[in-house]
Each structure stands twice: as C-alpha cells, then as structure tokens.
Amino acid sequence: MRHRQRRTAVLLLLASAAGLVLIDLARGRPVELRVAAPEPTPTTAASVVPAAVALRPTSPSPEPPSPTPVAVATTFPITGPGTFRYADSTGALLGTAGTLRRFRVATEDGLAQDAKSFAASVDQILGDPRSWIAGRQFRLQRVPRSAPAEFTIFLATPATSERMCAAGGLATEQYTSCRLPGQVIINVARWLTAVPDYGAPLAEYQAYAVNHEVGHQLGHGHERCPTPGGPAPVMQQQTLGLKGCVAYGWPYLDGRRYAGPPIP
C-alpha cells in the first residue's frame, strides 16, 4: 500500500526596511506582510549659540550681567579665499583708564558669520569687567579699516588661519588659533565648536580664545595651571588641554589679575 507523502510548509521570515516577508519554501511563493513604518522623529530647530560671556567657574561674588547673546552659524568651510571683510563701524570705548589701543575686526569671505556679528562678540568679550580692561592700564576701541590701529582680529577658516600663522613661523595644523605681531587670528572651527572635553559652554571658550590671543598682543606669555581643580589661567594653552584646571576664559577673577606660573 502506497503512502501519500505530505509536504511540510517551511516558512522563512525575512525582515526588510519596507516590511516583513514570509517565504513558503515548499511552494517557493513569497507572502508579504506589510508593517506600518515608524513615525518620523520630530526635528528641532538649530540651537542658538551665545557668542560672548558665559559661566564663571569659581567666584563667590555676583556675576556681572551678561550681554545680549548674538546668534552665530554652526557650520563653516574648511578652506576660504583668503580675503576678508572688515567691520566698518567704530565700537564703544572699552575701559575707563589708561592708554587707548585701537583694533580692527575682520572675517574671511565665505563664512556664514559676518564681520558685524563677530565684531559685536569681540566687543562684548573685551568690554567685560573680567577682561584685560580690568587692569586700568589701557582702554580698547574697535575702529574701521580706514582708521589707524595697533592690531586686527581675524576670523578665518582652518586652512587660511594655518597659512597666516605659518607666515609667522607658527604651526597650527588647521586646529589652533595664533597671534602674530599686529594680527590676532581666530580659527573659526575653534570659535564655533571649541575643543573636546573643555567642560564649559561654548561662550566660555570664545572668551578664552579672544582674551588669550589678545593677551599675547598685549605682551603676555604662556602660563601653567597653578592649582589642580582651580580655574585655568587665560594664558594657559587651554585648547591643548586643561592639565587639571577648570576652564576659565578671563584674565581677571574677583577683580584681581589671575595668572599661573610662566612657561619660559
């Protein structure tokens, strides 16, 4: 007596981006089960990055009022044309005593942040009561390109800033900012993204970047972290690591000049 053989249907479950597919291996016919696609995740608007003063790490005294934040772009090109647009207005007089030292502000063509907004950020930083004017040795004022000035603060792409710094013998590898006589060169990548593990808001790093390079222009050299866990001196190379200190972007703390041991 002959026995009829039964075919056992084996179903293979396959997953795909569009849904689930069942394949009947016995019959070789796919059976598709559609699954509803997941709901799209809502996106949020890009954050507005304040462009100047932020957190003060350690100080029992009240904070000075923060200026109105200035929105900045968060994307930037790596290379640029090497030409610059200057802020043509005259800024407020910063400081109350001492020799007047004038400076210009310029941004490389092609950057989303224009010279006017960058100049506003620089004015806010250098005009802060924790900045260099606190020493009452000099005042600072931004002037247009047509006016005499001691130095210019440039905001440049990584490639352009590297070329400018290399012209003075400084190697930045498209990463750090630098200062040459009469030129404070801020790398836009650092200006907009700071550095990994900085441990403070972007605005604190921006204050550090400007105050550090302007500090070189004013005659200050590099310093070391004086006390692990304490604020980093503004003339410490904070971009290359805090070395146990806490991020701090200002040369004055509690109304007094704050510095670390000098590096020969």
TrEMBL record:
Q: In which domain of life is the source organism classified?
A: Bacteria
Keyword tags = Lipoprotein
Is Lipoprotein a UniProt keyword of this protein? Answer: yes
The record's listing under Pfam families reads: DUF3152 (PF11350)
Indicate the segments forming the DUF3152 domain, all copies.
Answer: 75-243
Which InterPro entries does the record associate with it? DUF3152
* Name of this chain's protein: Lipoprotein
